Amino acid sequence: MLVGNSWMSRSTTLYKRHRFPPEIIQYAVWLYHRFNLSHRDIEELLAERGVVVSYESIQLWCNKLGPHYARRLKRRHQGFGDTFYIDEVFVKINGEQHYLWRAVDQDSKVVDVFLQAKRDGATAKRFFKRLLRNHGGEPRRIVTDKLRSYCVAHREIIPESIHDTERYANNRAEQSHESTRIRERGMR
Q1: Does domain 83-187 have CATH number 3.40.50.10490?
Q2: What is the pLDDT of residues 126-145, one digit of tens each?
Q3: Is this model's pTM higher than 0.90 or not?
Q4: Half-sphere exposure of 66 (CA within 13 A, CB side)
């Protein structure tokens, strides 16, 4: 399960007015966010275990409790490594093109994600400032592709860190976009 029993006793108001026990709700939300499953798939998986719940309820649980669980897990997180792999990918939202910026550490853990309409130097600087604020310190090394916006942000925000733009060095960040692409394909 996502959380321990000591947390459940302190935060029973979170599950107030829910018909199902917190363990089932946590399990359904975990299934949705951990695997690329739809709400109806989770409804079927729970039905096989004898829990009859509608996909609408699962959707409400995911929307209400997913961000809460993410905040709790982020507070518990021990920290990231000293190397950041940074990349951006375009996504279409309501027919408009946006850029999803993502930073992962050397263990392929997502450090931060940032959605913007542009892909210029000012946006890269904003993303780097956000990374520093959330990470708590400068990374020893950053690895990016050859987009010039990264050079501007590196030069102005974190000039002390090593900036690597070698070919294929940024594959770790490129691969981290795969989950976004899979979910995007599923929504078409």
Answers
A1: no
A2: 999 998 887 777 888 999 88
A3: no
A4: 13
